[in-house]
Amino acid sequence: MTTAPVPPSPALEPVPDWLDDIEGERALSWVAQRNAATRAAFDDAPGFAELRTDIETILDAPDRIPRVGQAVGALYNFWTDAAHPRGLWRRTTWESYRADGPTDWEVLLDLDALGAAEDTAWVWHGASVLRTGPLAGRRALVTLSDGGSDTDVTREFDLDAHRFLPTTPAAAAGFHREASKGFLTWGDETGEAALLATDFGVGSLSPAGYPRQVRRLHRGQAPDAGEVLLTAAADDDGAWAYRDFWGHTWLLTRPDFYTEELWLLPDGAPTHPAADAGRQLAGTQAVVAPGALHVDVPASAAVTPAWDLLLIELREDWEPAAGCTYRAGSLLAAPLDAFLGGSRELTVLFTPTLASSLSGFTITAHHLVLELLEDCVTALEVLTPAGPDGVGPWSRHHLDLGALAGGDLPAASASAADPTLLRPGRALLNVSASAVDPLAGDGLWLTSSSFTRPTTLALGELNADGELGGVEVLRTAPERFDASGVVVTQHVAVSEDGTRVPYFQIGRPRLDDAGRPLPSPTLLHGYGGFEVSLGISYLPITGRAWLERGGTYVVANIRGGGEYGPAWHRAGLKRNRHRVFEDFAAVARALVERGVTAPEQLAVHGGSNGGLLVGVMLTRYPQLVGAVVCEVPLLDMRRYNRLLAGASWEAEYGDPDDPAQWEYIREFSPFHLLEAGRTYPPVLLVTSTRDDRVHPAHARTMAYRMLALGQDVTYFENSEGGHGRASTSAQRAYMYALEHEFAWRALTYSRSTSS
Which of 206, 432, 608, 669 is catalytic? Predict the structure, then answer.
């Protein structure tokens, strides 16, 4: 049955606009009062401090796998622990990393010490080591955020001296970028040029807050003196540029979240002088360097360079020539020079099926490794071109990493008599591969894990034929929770329009004397947007905080995500958004029908777009759930596009400023779905003051209105953390403990009072 249209709500008390003032005194005073009430309710509760400590111990465990990336022969790692909550950037050698004893790390940058010296809560946003030229392995561009917001800075780092380069005098100055939602990346083979996008002043930012202009700087130049490579249109989401591993420079604009225009800028090609920058920003149209070559593919396609090829991933059907159509979700290869010259000779590398989709890929020196999703479970395939131009047959090899995870999971013993099971008996395992260094060879980082088995990290080498040689296991993470008796299964629910919706179920079955399932507290997690897939991963935190207590954890693979490729995502866009929520509700109903849980014992959990998802569950399906955990959410869809980065998501949700579109958007705007006189399940709203992607006003105003309506609302706003809602392990541990404790308390209280 289709959900009924939203009835008009009686007049509700207006929500004060001072809640929108992110760091306004009155707003922060209100936040402090709500945080104090939450802390009073939870901090001293029996078991809460122990749970929080246990989670922090897991997050800071010294025996975690130190993930590394190779650059110019060295292995780099960013590491946090109890002694270094902000983290250490460090490197080591292959010999030391492979050794049985402790790894010998060379500390390059201590963020805690840097933050103390500069009185700034620096959060790591990554680094790019220069890989070519005389400065290879000696210089890096390091990006840092104040408090974890998306707005960040980039500075050039001297890897020999372990210090940032000064910004003066000009002749020896290091590259740097002031705070913005932009980027600074290497711009040539020598390290003497950089590509910059930042806030250049009036008119230089898009409606979503991203830079519109890309410039190329040479060492010693001021940012406003750089030649102009690209200026995005005034209503585009922004402009970007990068230099690939093979020395090509690429420019792109994004008219919206799912479309882009791409150009190749040959070395030495004409560009625009700095004097033209202001005039271009004052205009409304995109302006690209006159020497740039346009890549003529559908705007919705994603293009990735590989060697001298273009890899084209389609989100919509494409007919480049009469009578020749390639399906959405396909991956194509084209010789770069020939394609730019007008040839449309394409090689199909992958075509989706009803059960399989392309999740991603990695490129080595001679091979392409595809990561596939087969009914939401990963598989790996190696493709090898017949020749350097990529034309002709590609050989294929399947990579089986099941042995790394110790064999099948308990799903293999699940009863096939359950008609809701999806492909019973197969191992539910996550495997992934990433190139060690596409410039250095065909080595692969190989990882495998499951919901109950921790990660194994191995090193593999592909031979010339694309076959995997010997696999060297480098690290195996210890178990972090008691998984004995935990059963992992995969099921399908049926949505309102008949679509089969998969979900994973993890927990210890509770049975009565007759062997029938007994309902247990269940935490249902979902996202359902932006073509993001939810898959299998080890659950150290949820295992300790939920599964060990006897709870059940469920992951729903609803439409709007990418589990079955672009079509699965597009089925939940804009006017069809209701399907996303119907899918999630169908999983909730299926869990009740199967006896896994009961409505009063079911909590739903989601963050960001997933926060919108559970906000709709709260307001449209309150009878299905017993509690709601809603993190860094979108909730006020009437004005989401005018808050921070919201303008960039109109391709996902629609434009609420268009009255015709607002009619359907209002149907999934939780803030506007609230009604006086109704009782809603208990809700926990979590956000961050430093979230400059999804405005904290979404959570603030929802909490304010619900409290005014007399509802059961718990609110917590972290002072930093950005869209990730926390910046340190201690902050994350508190958030995780609060979320799980809130849900457990709400569900077990509901059960005790209803029995």
Answer: 608
